[in-house]
Amino acid sequence: MSIKNIALCAGGFTGEYEVSVNSAKNIAANLNTDKYKVYTIFINRDRWFYESVDGSIDVDKNDFSITLNGDKIKFDFAFITIHGTPGEDGKLQGYLDMLGIPYNNCDTTTSAITMNKAFTKAIVDGIHGLHAANSLRLCERDMHDVAIVAAKLKFPLFIKPNNGGSSVGMSKVYNAAGLPDALTKAFKEDDQVLVEEFIKGREFSRGVARLNGKIVVLPATEIITSKDFFDYEAKYSPGLSEEITPANLPLVKNDEIAEILAEIYLRLNCKGMVRIDFILREETNDFYFIEVNTTPGQSSASLIPQQVRAAGLDLVEFYGELIEGNKPAS
Hints:
By secondary structure, this protein is α+β, with helices and mostly antiparallel strands. The chain contains ten helices and 17 strands. Strand 13 and strand 14 form a beta hairpin. The mean pLDDT is 92.
């Protein structure tokens, strides 16, 4: 059996560069060294490079290769763990598709669509049992009449960048007076903004992956935060949030949620592993869709590794199947 060369792509162009690097370290520690030779490729706006013992080596972007000690190393597979652009929004996927190099996550189209919260909600609309908060999508080039927003939606409201999944630029407002500042903050991150009604309830996140050809829904994690909502600070500051895996859910509700999540995965043509965030509404216990994350964090404390362990699965086998189960795009 020949050993495959794996390009573990980390970094990216966003503020989650270090989060991505931590994910890459955990993935590298859980890839079978008998099967895979792992090269962590750091990608930023200035350069793509591999850090060798002799210094950093630039990637040849013509064929996605590196030259190490005079030997040209081509990659059999790219394991992408970049949050945001260019690893989560389809750009890197399109590049790899053109070179015929397979990778672990969703294809170019799905990656691009799921980065756009409004487009994603439109596609999953109509799935049995799935609800979504009332919302408006605003574009920076358009006029933003606060009175119109206030008239169409019920407060409190969430204002968040339409593209991206890092919770940066997100605000919760309780009246029309808070809208202008919240919109300004969100427009600093994106030229499209989603204004969405707040749904009060329990917040969950749950991984879905295709393993050995079958869709597997991992155990749910309930997220309980001491902050007003689960923003970037709550996500990455120790002690601000509690994550309960597996979540305390009745078996019937658990199965019902799993069916909805599997349908979302199919409807969006997802591949590899994704994480889907949702709320169970307080009054009704109805499922309210939030978003799909196609490159979820993979540090040892991240939700997907927690859920893999809770499911009784081996993380080494889990990552191995993400590699073996993916073929290059035709």
